[in-house]
Amino acid sequence: MQLCANKLDKKDFFGKSDPFLVFYRSNEDGTFTICHKTEVIKNNLNPVWQPFTIPVRALCNGDYDRTVKVDVYDWDRDGSHDFIGEFTTSYRELSRGQSQFNVYEVLNHKKKGKKKKYVNSGTVTLLSFKVDSECTFVDFIRGGTQLNFTVAIDFTASNGNPSQPTSLHYMSPYQMNAYAMALKAVGEIIQDYDSDKLFPAYGFGAKLPPDGKISHAFPLNSNAENPNCVAIEGVLEAYFQSLRTVQLYGPTNFAPVISQVARCAAEVTDGSQYFVLLMITDGVISDMDQTKEAVVNAAGLPMSIIIVGVGPAEFDAMEELDGDEVRVSSRGRSAERDIVQFVPFRDYMDRSGNSVLSMARLAKDVLAEIPEQLLSFMKSRGLEPRPPLPATSDPPSMSTSTPAPKQSKAHA
Known about the structure:
seven-stranded mixed sheet; 11 helices; elongated; Copine_C; calcium-dependent phospholipid binding; repeat; Copine
């Protein structure tokens, strides 16, 4: 919205006033909370303030008839701003836009009590008012947007021999290892947004039979033509099978798998699909420069990367990829969006050894940024949610839609 004022009271002895507006939302208990301040306009009794944007929730908490109080002040350098006057309005009144209803008398009740001929301390006029609806993650899911979930697991030798209990890949008959727990925790939630429950699953950093060739993006199910596994149980099965057949080796290269998923994401940029890559690793990335470049390239695609660090290693370099503080850059180019979320699994391990609780904590945190990342891509491309699809009798946890037909997810 944008406002201007006319004939405000002169408060400064040597000049005119330096007016600014303060907006307050009224609360249920009769108190007021500041929700916006305009800029100060120096030495002007007829100011025109810059247009500003405010969430409806902040202005009136969604109650269109709730009182919105506006104070008009004259700015003073020492912070003791002089009160010029006030007026009240509401979201409903403001939403009428520019009209005679939206010219407000600025009243100073102290002044009114002292001066018999007092009329007002000026007027404030609404120049424009526009409401934009913000689309949500759920709007896109209801409209049929699919989450494509891909898994990549670290098979480097630093994990330790899988047949030994000290290995991070150890297959105990009594409990899941950290890789399996991270995979199950994140995957079981994401699979509710994936209609065909087919997940491409890869390993990296291992020597493959029969010739011992090192691979940084091999399908866990050994099927190069179709790396899809059926549901999270299928991914776990393929993971355990791979542990029995491949030789853990190295180095820890991330870029090949990121580029692999990015090629698939580049084929579907119309908002119908969004790709989430879960990488589970135990250590330091060997190809950091190439990984940064792959992340910068992927940031312009419908894609997010979740990295879960397992084991006791220091993961300092991973924080660099998680662009919360500083956006990832490569060769002078910065990532268009922050698409990487990194967490060390040890931070989520329940002290009493309750694996269900550990998994729930991990999933909550690593999936927290996905909705925002999906929205940032859609917004950057001007993509709107499609109309909600008819509900089925068997909806997943948050999606009440019959998902759109999905393209094959075989690797590019």
